Amino acid sequence: MREPQPTSTLGAMRQVMDLSWHRVVTRLAAATLMASVLYPVNAHAQFRGQEPPKGPSYGWWLSGGAAAMTIRDVNDGKSQSVWSFGTDATWQARGSIEKAIDEVTTFGIVGGYGNASLLLKPMAGDSSALPSACQVECPASAKVWVGMLQFRSGGGEGFHTFFEANGGVTAFRDFTTKSDGLPVTAIKNTMDIAGTFGIGFGYSLSRGTVISVVQDAGIGMHSKDGLPTGTSRYWKNRTLRASLRMKFGGF
Asked: Is the N or C terminus of the chain more exposed, i.e. has fewer CB atoms within 10 Å?
């Protein structure tokens, strides 16, 4: 029988080194595979933890200007009087603050104030509630307030057109006779539901500065308390407005 040949020390060391190298390569391959599997999961988890991008902000618009408001007769049943504002315009200071919804659309609040001249006339029938100087008619004054929500659409660079729709209230307050400056106590402060629709023209002086002119028409609804049968509670108005508009933010 052939005896086994003794293995040299160099051969044994080579076998050990080959085995160790094989283990290192195997472990590196396993680690690489695990990293390739786990990395997308971690990246996705980080992405999910981030806040979603916010939509664009279009900023705010502020405006200020003047308005010439012509009001048709208002029939007031409580005082049995007719408020005849005539054809002379009531001048008002007017301003607005609006949030831009997109590049050409805004939604906001508008307000106006003016001191109106009018003639107080009694209705047919009982007129004893009015001062003696107003039994036929008398010149008087009243404060007119406007507060409305406004929707505006249109615009652009240079010369452009737009339209506005407004809805809210018009208030008539502090009636006084012009002859003696005394308050007309028979007429109470009132607040009428009102709305307007207008078409305007504008010109952009710069990206955030616009001059605009609007012509609108509206209707108001007065209290029907005490009105004789067949007497209308509605009144109409027309307003010509000019304003300077300035934009803040959203550029």
From this structure: N
